[in-house]
Model the fold of this input.
Amino acid sequence: MAKRSARAEKQPRQAPSLQGIERRLAQMQAHLLQNDIRIKGLERKVKDVTAERDDFKRRYFRSLDRIREQDKQIEVLKLKLDSAEKQLASFRREKFGQSTETDAPKDPAPINNPAIGKRKRGQQPGSKGHGRTKRTNIDEEERVLDVKDSACASCHKPFKLLPETDDSTITEIEILLFQLKYRRCRYARQCNCVGAKIITAPAPPRLYPKTTIGNSLWVHLCVQKFLHGTPTNRTLKDLALRELGLAAGTVTGGFKIINNLLEPLYEAIKTFCQGEHYWNADETHWRVLDDKKKWWLWVIAGRKAIAYILDESRSRRVPEEFFAGSIGILMTDRYSAYKSLPASIKKAWCWVHVRRDFLKLFRGLSKFRKWAKKWLLDITKLFVLNHLRFKSWSENQFSPALDGATKAVQDHVEHIRNNWDTQLSGHLHPLQRTAVLSLKRHWAGLTVFLEDPRIPLDNNRAERLLRNCVINRKNSYGNSVEWAGHLSAKFFSVFQTWLANGLDPQALLLDYFNECSLNPGKPPPSIDKFLPWKMDEQRTLEFRLPASYKRPA
Done:
């Protein structure tokens, strides 16, 4: 083995031939050419794949952007759909349902009574009745009814008349319409003294010169229209059935004079109302037919004085002008015009309007029903607890029961505050968040009632005081001219102020017109005896409201 290796090392290597080298070079060149072709093909494939990848990425991100945009649109559409369903539920209830909020969930737990079912209206079965109402203040006329034949039909022997009678009463109405003819005596002077030759008795008192309508008939026309909401045209037709024809123009002209006669009384009521310390306020639209714009009727109700203001604006200017210089607490809804009032007017917001925010969600969207029900029950419990607090305060202002009732109200208010604070820190649907945020924004005004048990939770008093005005507006379509609208506001103010103080508006208006008749066409020189806060006790008893009349608000 070693010998063969030694021999191989001794033999010299043969040099490759030129042809072999060229052949080998050609093979290598061909191989390189093939590799170049393959590389270029692979590069083309890589370029195509890269372009395809970039195109796919572009399309992917475009699709992703479109998906995100569509998700946003879906959320917006869902929100619009929820709002539309909420509005549709409100519209259906407004047009086809009952105008009541008593169908909301109620929890009897706050008053510690077992659930005994819904109480029906009217006299309850098994309860003691009060008997027939005695009408002792109505004039009574007796009529005797006798049998047709007071003898026996068989033997013709007369019956014996018993001393007792079987009595019953029937209430009737009779309207007495008459003309009062005044005969003014005339005297002729029979002496030569200085003076008129013919002396005539003074003219009878009239509301304004040359009118042929007596004060009692003017009172009837005014009360029917502005207290009972009966259009003047219907009242005139009713009088026409009794053979009294009155021209509408005559009544309109008289109303225009009455508008001036009521001015000092109306201004005195407004001034006294401005000086009170607690008010309810609200507003409703009003029609003035000769003006295409919508007018507004505002009511501002103090404890003793109630002022109605007709204005073409619903802006903050109206309450700012009225409350300029006043100090007190104003209970109203959350309308922005009241929010601009100065700090001297402490704003107390109505809890019923807060409740309506959750009630709309409860009625409008089934997915919010459970959530809204909890809020409605909490607000219902607040009303119950505050009612018990006011009841305890009315009975004894220094009793331990009042302290316990006040503590219960304060604890529940704190519970409601913690509830909205917790919910706002979590996830809420935009409609839910809107309702809760409104509660948070108005929280300071919603808790003013804690300072004084006499401050209610709602603004129902102002809304009730507008009810008669709304009925009048619907029946009479508002007023045709501006001065007639201001006349309506004056009568509303005078009538409701008298009613709020337990006075008969019909009797007082007749007395006021009689006072004006002493100087026809002009208001009386002093109106103090027509203002409830300046009346003495005897006059208050003279014009007190009948017990059978239920005072509004």
Notes: Residues 351-458 form one domain.
